[in-house]
Amino acid sequence: MDNIGAALRGALAAGETRAAVRLAAAAGWYWWLGGHRTEGLDLLTAAARAPGEADDGARATVYALIVMFVSSGLGDERQAADWIHEAHRLSSRAPEGAHPAIGFIAVLERLLREPDAHLPAFAPLLDDPDPWVRALARLHTGKMPFMLGRGGPEAYAHLETALAEFRALGERFGMSFALTELADRLAERGDFAAACARYEEAIAAVTEVGATEDMIRMRSRQAQLYWLLGDAAASAAALDDARRCAERVTWPDALAELAFARAGLARGRGDAAEARRQLAVATAALGDDAELAHIRGVTHDMLGYLADDLGESGAHRAAAFEAAAEAGHPPLIALALVGIADLALRRGDAEQAARLLGASAAVRGLRDRSHVDADRIEREARGRLGDARYAEAAREGAEAGWSHLAGVTLAS
Question: From the CB of residue 311, how many other CB atoms can be counted at a distance below 10 Å?
Fold first, then answer.
């Protein structure tokens, strides 16, 4: 790694842009998978911005790799969009047989213009001559409906097919990607043991290629799922493994995801002080990116649960909802609605809490069984209302406009 970085920096310093871009294009996947994402992104960006002529295919590959780096995890979507547009401009000049990642740039550019066009956007890649491209396109065809609150058996089947295709290729990054998506779908259904097992398979795959940042994210999520299973020892062991991995990397997204997981687990133990401390660690790791809408949404959502004062909790709920609406992500909107349901219940309005839970499930497309607060709120609201009235109120919420429903609660 040191030799590659030194060679690229030397080429840039000498004004040898063509060599620098070719080296960055060749090393990008290594930086991604080898636990060097922070330095890798810095070097890719430096090569992309270097003045001078460079091979069109290599330059397009560098831009496509940067898109992968900045669009993963907790990244800034606006920053990713800028790179996607530039990569799309360059991709038209890339020769046939260039890096397979370039083929996805046209899809991403279309999705910026037509967010709901995921099926027709990915469809051409499902018949691509490259089996890796086909498998990754299949994976995204299955993933996108769940992100948009429209997941179902067909989307789940696409994820299973993608996993089988990556297994046939022996491609461990793709296997881990598909396995984590399947694990999250199992967790949403409440099958936490099966989800943990899928995560274990995914961790084994990325361990073989050295993707330390991915291991941090996976172990952090696994720790949460073991906690939901009631296995405190396994949860602590997964979290300890994530901490050890975090000592070897500087990638902000991975460090923030670990801190968010630790904050959630601390709140589950009733340790509000530690939860707040970990939220501060997460925001410090992200720096300016902590002000992104989706990060603010998650942060204020947790602070809303931690606040003892109803006025303070309401302020956090309003901030979380505003951020979720700004981001426009159905899972984040659903998360914010559960938080507002908690506020309604704390104010003594069980019917409104039930409506908000119904709205949350409708936005997400399913009832997320991995959300422990949703389960708690449902149990308490059912206890106060009875099963029949709870079901009626939840139906009302599912049919109501979620924005109006949340606004009424936050304004009261």
Answer: 7
